[in-house]
Amino acid sequence: MTRPSALRVLIAIGSVALGLIHLRLYFTTYRDVPIQNLGRSFLLNAAVAAVAAVVVLVVATRWAPLAPLVVANATLIAFGLSRTDRGIMGFTERGWTPTPDAALAVGIEIVTAVLCVAALATADFTGREAPRTGTDGTP
Amino acid sequence: MRKSSHSTVAAAAILTVLSSGFAVVAAVDSNSGRITPAADRTEPAVSNSTSVAPPGGSNASVVEVAISGFAFGPPALEVSAGSTISWTNRDNVAHTVSTSDGVLASPDLDNGDTYSFVVDEPGTIQYYCDIHQYMHGTITVTP
User: What does each C-alpha distance from B47 to B44, B80, B127 come to in angstroms?
Assistant: First the structure.
């Protein structure tokens, strides 16, 4: 078992944080929206973000950061769409409300996505793989 | 790093830049006080419109409407002419009180903000939230 690198731990923290914000937004605000799938999408976001955090910590391939990267970017795109006239799933919102959750979530998503790109670019692995040892304990 | 790896990282970087930029620009642009022209709306028009006046008239009764849970409560009101209607936003997101002809045209109401106006002519006013246009309310003004 290898230990996750600091970069991957940061990515996991970011992913969990953005999931928690969406979970909070669901219970404090968006579960009342009369577009059921809109509210559920906040719950789905929280669940998927938690799974992505686990993936980036546990899955020892260089491509594991793609999971939180996709979650962060998809969430950013959904946020952007909700601020357009067309909205998302018929739902529109304006500016950076709810305050401060919207701005906080976008900031965390951008940072998490950038960290994911850095992890992919540097082929950051889950720490360093333990050196293989022979039966006599020699490398 | 292999060429395919370079391509994947580059694609990830480009996606991140584009999605981040889109989110920020959309939020800033939507926050610039945009008001949709009345001609572009499909909401019911105001009939027998009332005039906007400062709240607190001498003989006016005040009727409170709470904006909560993405709904106006109560959604339908019957008030006498001269009454003051006062909307207070109890949600964590901004709402407006708007009519398609602009008779009611509150600014974005944040949590705790109040918008008031006086109805002075009998008739029916159908209003909505300009941000969440599935939120509707009706005021019936009696003589």
Answer: 9, 16, 11
